[in-house]
């Protein structure tokens, strides 16, 4: 039995460390959790689907036995092989950039983060694959250097094996530290287990982070950079038990999703609200929705401007109003077009708006738009707001909120045709539709306000209702951050379609 010779991290002062270098382990040190299984499970599910997650779950008992009774290195190698074998390295990097940061940031250890963030130079030394953790550590924790296990690759795909010198555990960590720093000794070393002792001994000061899962996590406001964009299908961190529940639920959930989608697509809209409640989908309506416009009144229809949550926004808007509301959309999958119960106006490939078609729809009745842009800098919202003055001053902001317990109903990376299915696969999903007050005449374009002023006012009103902070990020920013592209979909321009949302 190895006797601990290092003090605990709470004994380390964080004042005056601006010129010091810190080297920290990850699992159990920077993170409260000592198990890396949930993060491997996220990669397995997001890239390989439920079958890859099942394979990882079946391999995890072997990994646990090897980890605790043979060697840490062998156990981690089993997790790496069962997760990565055959995957494109680019897909792993995409998940590391778009999915993992939210889950990693939700488990930061407060005491080790206080020390780590106080140092001028930050290095992370971890047994985790570098490709899986580097994006989060450098972009959101301000790490200057990440030393992790290097995975083997062949023609752009992971082989499932690791490169020499193997998994960075024990002596391999110490050797990696020596190679990176040479004869220079880092001022502070942080670890959490006896296999970290070799590299801690190479630091001027070494500290152990004791297992305290009950400590409060670091709030995201204390991170050097806030995590704004997040992708991925899973709502909760997939522990082994949660992973098992997901695997068992998916067949049942898919059948349930098909029933819910059929109800929304085939039943008359006044009945859909009650059908959803009977099938476990909660639709919560707040505020006072305006009545439908009568054609005999010679008035233009109401333009509902909704905050964007999923492709289903206009469907639930229509459900809340008990009548189908046509929607303006950019692009959706062919499957979503087939199963949609509402009519839409499509943008052209360059996002140009057909003003004559929109004017015609507003003359016939109400219309909805659910822009992904967060400010008037978004070209979609800019071009749309430019039409406010000539089309209508009947503008009603709508704040949308959805609640899911197992799956997210939207994605930037994956096939968007599955978005409605994933949303309805949740055991009891909910949509909260809040109708805000119609914009007074003096705040519309027809009263002399610019389209930018109107668009930004609507954004602020919706953000205040949802307790969100307005940003200057656009739809392109989101897709560049999450999917590595600008979100442009190349396809033939079409005007009228029946789709599952906008």
From TrEMBL:
Q: What is the lineage of its organism?
A: Eukaryota, Viridiplantae, Streptophyta, Embryophyta, Tracheophyta
Q: What superkingdom heads the lineage? A: Eukaryota
Q: Which residues form the Phospholipid/glycerol acyltransferase domain?
A: 302-403
What does the UniProt function comment say about this protein?
Answer: Involved in the production of cutin monomers. Esterifies acyl-group from acyl-ACP to the sn-2 position of glycerol-3-phosphate, a step in cutin biosynthesis. Required for colonization of the root by mycorrhizal fungi, and appropriate hyphopodia and arbuscule formation. Cutin monomers act as plant signals that promote colonization by arbuscular mycorrhizal fungi. This signaling function has been recruited by pathogenic oomycetes to facilitate appressoria formation and their own invasion.
Q: What is this protein called?
A: Glycerol-3-phosphate acyltransferase RAM2
Q: Which SUPFAM superfamilies does UniProt cross-reference here?
A: Glycerol-3-phosphate (1)-acyltransferase (SSF69593), HAD-like (SSF56784)
Q: Where in the cell is it found?
A: Membrane
Cite the EC number: 2.3.1.15
Q: In which pathway does it act?
A: Lipid metabolism; glycerolipid metabolism; Glycerolipid metabolism
One GO BP annotation is:
response to symbiotic fungus
UniProt keywords (A-Z) are:
Acyltransferase, Membrane, Transferase, Transmembrane, Transmembrane helix
Q: What is the native source organism of this protein?
A: Anisodus acutangulus
Q: Name one Pfam family in it.
A: Acyltransferase
| PANTHER family per the UniProt record, alphabetical | ANCIENT UBIQUITOUS PROTEIN (PTHR15486), LIPID DROPLET-REGULATING VLDL ASSEMBLY FACTOR AUP1 (PTHR15486:SF96)
Topology within the bilayer: Multi-pass membrane protein
**Gene Ontology terms for molecular function:** glycerol-3-phosphate 2-O-acyltransferase activity; glycerol-3-phosphate O-acyltransferase activity; phosphatase activity
Q: InterPro entries this protein is in?
A: HAD-like_sf (IPR036412), HAD_RAM2/GPAT1-8 (IPR056462), HAD_sf (IPR023214), Plipid/glycerol_acylTrfase (IPR002123)
């Amino acid at each position: 039995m190895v006797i601990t010779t290092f003090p605990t991290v709470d004994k380390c002062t964080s004042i005056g460390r601006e010129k010091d270098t810190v080297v920290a382990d990850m699992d159990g040190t920077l993170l409260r959790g000592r198990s890396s299984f949930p993060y491997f499970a996220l990669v397995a599910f997001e890239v390989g689907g439920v079958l890859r997650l099942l394979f990882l779950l079946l391999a995890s008992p072997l990994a646990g036995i090897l980890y605790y009774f043979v060697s840490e290195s062998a156990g981690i190698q089993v997790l790496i092989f069962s997760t990565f074998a055959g995957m494109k390295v680019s897909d792993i990097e995409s998940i590391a950039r778009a999915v993992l940061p939210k889950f990693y940031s939700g488990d930061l250890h407060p005491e080790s983060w206080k020390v780590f963030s106080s140092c001028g130079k930050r290095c992370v030394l971890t047994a985790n694959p570098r490709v899986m953790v580097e994006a989060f550590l450098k972009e959101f924790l301000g790490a200057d250097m990440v030393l992790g296990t290097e995975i083997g690759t062949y023609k752009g795909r992971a082989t499932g094996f690791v490169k020499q010198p193997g998994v960075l555990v024990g002596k391999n960590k110490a050797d990696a530290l020596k190679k990176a720093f040479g004869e220079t000794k880092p001022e502070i070393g942080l670890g959490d287990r006896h296999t970290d002792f070799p590299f801690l001994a190479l630091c001027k000061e070494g500290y152990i982070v004791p297992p305290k899962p009950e400590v409060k996590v670091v709030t995201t406001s204390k991170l050097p950079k806030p995590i704004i964009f997040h992708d991925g299908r899973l709502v909760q961190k997939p522990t082994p038990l949660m992973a098992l529940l997901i695997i068992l639920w998916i067949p049942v959930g898919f059948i349930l999703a098909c029933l819910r989608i059929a109800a929304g697509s085939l039943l008359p809209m006044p009945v859909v609200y009650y059908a959803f409640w009977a099938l476990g989908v909660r639709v919560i309506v707040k505020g006072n929705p305006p009545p439908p416009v009568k054609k005999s009144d010679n008035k233009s229809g109401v333009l509902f401007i909704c905050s964007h949550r999923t492709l289903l926004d206009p469907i639930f808007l229509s459900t809340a109003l008990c009548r189908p509301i046509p929607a303006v959309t950019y692009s959706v999958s062919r499957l979503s077009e087939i199963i949609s119960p509402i009519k839409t106006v499509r943008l052209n490939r360059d996002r140009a708006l057909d003003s004559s078609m929109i004017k015609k729809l507003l003359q016939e009745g109400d219309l909805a738009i659910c822009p992904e842009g967060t400010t008037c800098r978004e070209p979609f919202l800019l071009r749309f707001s430019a039409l406010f003055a000539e089309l209508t001053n009947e503008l009603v902001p709508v704040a949308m909120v959805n609640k899911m317990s197992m799956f997210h109903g939207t994605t930037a990376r994956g096939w968007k045709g599955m978005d409605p299915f994933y949303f309805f696969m949740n055991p009891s999903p909910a949509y909260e539709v809040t109708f805000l007050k119609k914009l007074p005449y003096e705040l519309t374009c027809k009263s002399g306000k610019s389209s930018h002023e109107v668009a930004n006012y609507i954004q602020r009103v919706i953000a205040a209702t949802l307790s969100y902070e307005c940003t200057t990020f656009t739809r392109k920013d989101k897709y560049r951050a999450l999917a590595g592209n600008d979100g442009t979909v190349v396809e033939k321009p079409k005007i009228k379609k029946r789709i599952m949302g906008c």
